[in-house]
Each structure stands twice: as structure tokens, then as C-alpha cells.
Amino acid sequence: MLEKLPNHSLTSEEDRVKYTDGSISVTIWFDEDNSIFAFEVIFDLLMNEVALLYSKKAPSRLVNIDHGISKPGRTVKQSIGTERLQLTPTRVNEFKRVSESLPGDHREFILQVMYSLENQT
User: Which H/E stretch holds residue 97?
Assistant: First the structure.
């Protein structure tokens, strides 16, 4: 089950909320009327991470997370891959299984985006 993470940033919970269960991470950003402005769902944390990205201002997409090239004396920065991946029913079911603890309207919103991507071929 996804658990809400404590907020340790200057961003308030009115603007952003995070959840994780150790294998999936969900971050949701809200706009001024408290509706979902954007979200990311990251699957396979710490392995071959794949991110589902949604924003009101851009098309939704599923992409790889690249850990970039390590340079001496610098921390490794993650980057978002450009190749779009196909969202599979397995990923949708994985999210459904762990997301029951999310607020119902947030969960349903994310699932609707997932269903629309899953049906694109």
C-alpha cells in the first residue's frame, strides 16, 4: 500500500503530496483550485525506473528514467528519457493494487489517465 510521505520541503501539502510503498512512488501537484495540475508515478524504484508523467499542459507519457553519466566530484542527476513506452495492463494492475490508500478522487483521476494511455496503440 502506498503511504503518504512527510513533507520536508518548502512546498506545502496544498501544492504537492508524495506517496510511496518502496516499489512505486506517486507525486501529485495541485493548482490554485486544488485540482490535480500534474502527477508522476514512478514504477520499479531503484531498478530500471519508468515514469508515467501527466500535466495539464502536456501530453501524458510513459518514459524511462535515465541515471545519467557520473562525473568526478558531482552527484548523479536523473533525466527523463525521450522514447515513449507502452503502458501495459500489468503496470495499471500494479498501481491499482497498491493505490487503494490514496484519496479516491486522486486515485480515479490517475487511473483514468492510465486507461487512456493503455488504449493508445
Answer: helix 89-98
